[in-house]
Amino acid sequence: MLILLAWCINRYTLINQSIWDGVEKLVYWVLFPCLLFNAAINAKLVWADNFLMLCLLAFCMSIMGLLAYCARWLFSPDPINLVSGIQTTFRFNTYIVLAVATRILDAPGLELMAITIACLVPISNALSVFSLAHRTGQNTLWEIIKNPFVIATTSGLFLNYLGFHLPDMLQLNVSRLGNASIPLGLLCVGAGLRWVNTKKDGVLVMYWTFLKLIAFPALALLGANLLHLPPEQKFNAVLFACMPTANAAFVLASRMGGNGSIVAVTISLMTLLAAVTIPFWIYLAK
To answer: How many CB atoms sit inside 10 A of residue 49's CB?
Structure first.
């Protein structure tokens, strides 16, 4: 709904793109990092018991990135369009993950999902920055180091590991800023929404969507069965894998010289189709 609202505002009102550019910068540099930092510093980290499951998901994310890059030979897309959307095949929408998890998981299940998110956000962000920086002519390592998403997550995990807790007032304000990132991030996606320019781009978007909503959870389910993961870890892995891509993918692509429009279309399509695919994968994982 927010995506549609922002698209209508941008298209039919006097609010121009320069305003959305300012909102996008705010989300990228302040609000999303607060969301990630807050999730990381408050997660209950139990590394050893869940190591195999986390390795499986990290492996699946890497495979999705490689398969997404194979579109270079399958469809011969525009290089900037290609690297902009690779990240959509392995990133995950934290808000939707938590919204679904709180409805269907018990307390131990929610803790397991929080650990999964906290551990895989740095990997997801690092892979995303690498895929964009590598092609857009930017220093890959430097872009990863200075990326606000990576900084926020790694610093939150480090403080969490040390047992450090923010003062209540600071914690409250960081949490509020993080919560604001979700609606504003969705508005930025809607404002940047454009339909694909060519049929080739449309095929690319459908390919990314297939990888994220079908191939990723299928590979996670297969891997969980082969590794004989406990039922709760198997369910957690599949639930995590079947989520649509992150809204932050649009922000990152736009800020790093990629094509934000094609990413916005992909996010919108994945989010809509996920309403059908998520219940399907939940059923199979049980």
So the answer is: 11
Estimate to the nearest angstrom the gap between the alpha carbon of 95 and the chain centroid: 9
pLDDT band at 234 (very low <50, low <70, confident <90, very high): very high
Residue labelled with tokens 């408050």 = 42
pLDDT on residue 134: 63
Nearest in space to 237 (alpha carbons), one of 226, 221, 225, 222? 221
The predicted-structure confidence for 165-196, as pLDDT tens digits, reads as follows: 899 999 999 999 988 887 887 787 777 666 66
Please indicate whether residue 149 or residue 215 has the higher confidence score (pLDDT): 215
Q: What pLDDT, on a 0 to 100 scale, did the predictor assign at position 114?
A: 76
What's the N-to-C CA distance of the chain in angstroms? 30
User: Of 9-13, 64-68, 205-209, 235-239, where does mean pLDDT reach its minimum?
Assistant: 9-13
Asked if 146 and 138 count as a contact pair (C-beta separation under 8 A), the reply is: no
Q: What is the 3-state secondary structure (H, E, C) of 137-203?
A: CCCHHHHHHHCHHHHHHHHHHHHHHHCCCCCHHHHHHHHHHHHHHHHHHHHHHHHCCCCCCCHHHHH
**Closest alpha carbon to 266 in 90, 127, 102:** 90
For residue 110 the two structure tokens come to 């929610």
Q: CA dist 72 to 7, 41, 68, 198, 252, Å? A: 30, 38, 8, 16, 21
Instruction: Give Dmax over CA atoms of the chain in angstroms.
Output: 57
Secondary structure of residue 263 in the 3-state scheme: helix
SS3 labels along 38-66: HHHHHCCCCCHHHHHHHHHHHHHHHHHHH
Distance between CA atoms of 198 and 201, rounded to whole angstroms?
5
- Which letter, b or e, does each residue of 108-134 get, where b requires 16 or more Cβ atoms within 10 Å of its Cβ? ebbebbbbbbbbbbbbbbbbbbbbbbe
